Please model this.
Amino acid sequence: MIRGIIETSFLDWDGKVVMVLYTPSCNFKCPFCHNWELLDDPEKYPEKTWDDIRAKLEEHSDFLDGVCITGGEPLLEPDIEEIMRNVKGMGKLVKLDTNGSFPEILSDLLEKKLIDYIAMDVKMPLDERYSDAAGLKIDIEKIKESIKIIRDSGVEHEFRTTVVPTIHTEKDILDIAKHLKDADKYVLQQFVPYHAWLESLRDVKPYDDQIILDMGQACSKIVKQVVVRGLK
Model:
């Protein structure tokens, strides 16, 4: 089920112009989530049928490279395979954003060659700290399995962490990087307090840009490609 569309985005897939499709369900409750209104009350947002999506893709077919499917957690949607097949059937690329909690579904979609790029959020180091950033108890073994599946898939990918003061320390970020040392790319995203799900986070000042850059520099000694996004 799709509840939101951005017809054209230059930001969601490096080097590509894509349409962004939003799914309304999530099994995490990350306190810094920006899409919480969609998750809290999806009925406020009209459901988009495949006919709606296809019409938009056809309208912009001359310059759209593909579609980014995000959420929420897209792998919760029972029709996610059908959506991907429909997009691929139009000759467009598919990028998946995921939290990594459904490795079996992820593996199946990869085997069916329905995903061209994967971005997986890694909230914290793969230990008891993970649940602090995810907002509830998480099965870490599933997260580890998804990371391995993605790294071994041969499909272009990135892992990414939104760096939130009061939640993440520099040590946390370095510990995450150690878990991702064989990844294609690790992305640090600057926290934007406006409209965070947890109201108290809306008053938290983000780390200075230089601190994020320093974290990225330290991670670059572990992961071969590190990117920092969202700086002023």
